[in-house]
Amino acid sequence: MPGEIFNPNPTVFATKPTVRKSDLLKQSLWINEKAVQEDNADEVDPIDQDEIFDLIRSIDDPEHPNTLEELRVVSAPQIDVKGNHVMVEFTPTIPHCGMSTLIGLSIRVRLLRSLPDRYKVDIRLKPGSHQSEHAVNKQLNDKERVAAALENQALLDTVEQCLARAGRRGHSE
Predict the structure, then answer these.
(1) φ, ψ for residue 24, nearest 5 deg
(2) What is the percent of the chain with per-residue pLDDT over 70, rounded to a whole number?
(3) CA end-to-end span of the chain, whole Å?
(4) Distance CA 14, CA 123 (A)
(5) Cβ count near 133 (within 10 Å)
(6) Ranges for the MIP18 family-like domain (predicted)?
(7) What is the CA radius of gyration of the chain?
(8) Alpha helices (H) along 40-163
(9) Higher model confidence: residue 75 or residue 26?
(10) Where are the beta strands (DSSP E) in 30-109?
(11) For residue 170, what are the CA distances in angstroms to 16, 48, 54, 91, 140?
């Protein structure tokens, strides 16, 4: 974690556990579970916006003891999934946030480690949310720059620290 704090007092929001439609179907008394399993045996369940959000919501902010969801850096409506293309838009807490690239890199690494190889992932800042929006977007979506960043052990250690508790998937410890 760098010495300079870019946003010393961020707004922290309450989070809610996500209830997925598939979870509701599992609890239904009216569904014949055996028939549903037989009908869907050959189908690949597509990944949706909520699943992507579950993967990234509990990534820790590099500056604060809060998750990206608690700081409203990420939210489900900022995620778009079309076929094998995932677009994640995130909003830094302040327009001059020096951690934006690190946050975006953490999101990218989490998704690359979690999604099948067939998915293409784009990470972008919410338009107008950062003073260096174009430069940060360019860094986050350039394969060579991402690979070079992940070869830097200090940077990789910081990313790993942000991802250390990401498996919580929206649930408190």
Answers:
(1) -65, -40
(2) 71
(3) 22
(4) 24
(5) 17
(6) 50-121
(7) 18
(8) 49-56, 100-114, 133-140, 143-151, 153-163
(9) 75
(10) 79-82, 85-90
(11) 8, 16, 6, 18, 24
Question: Do the Cβ atoms of 34 and 25 come closer than 8 Å?
Answer: no
Token pair of 88 as six digits: 């994640």
- The set of residues, in sequence order, having a beta carbon less than 8 Å from that of 168 and lying 6+ positions away, is 58
* CATH architecture designation of domain 45-168: 2-Layer Sandwich (3.30)
Mean pLDDT across the chain, nearest whole number? 83
Domain ranges of the chain: 45-168
Q: Tokens 């953490």 map to which residue? A: 106
Q: Which amino acid is at 6?
A: F
Taking the model in full, what pTM does it have?
Answer: 0.76
Contact residues for 150 (Cβ-Cβ < 8 A; gap 6+): 105, 109, 156, 159
Question: How far is C-alpha 110 from the geometric centre of its chain's CA atoms?
Answer: 7
Q: Which residue has the higher pLDDT, 18 or 112?
A: 112
Q: Is the dihedral of CA 159, 88, 171, 95 positive or negative?
A: positive
Structural tokens at position 120: 């293409």
**More confident position, 37 or 121:** 121
> 143-151 and 153-163 are packed helices; what angle lies between their axes, rounded to 10 degrees?
90
What does the pLDDT look like over 100-126, one tens digit per residue? 999 999 999 999 999 999 999 999 999
pLDDT, position 46: 82
Q: Is the pLDDT of residue 77 over 80?
A: yes
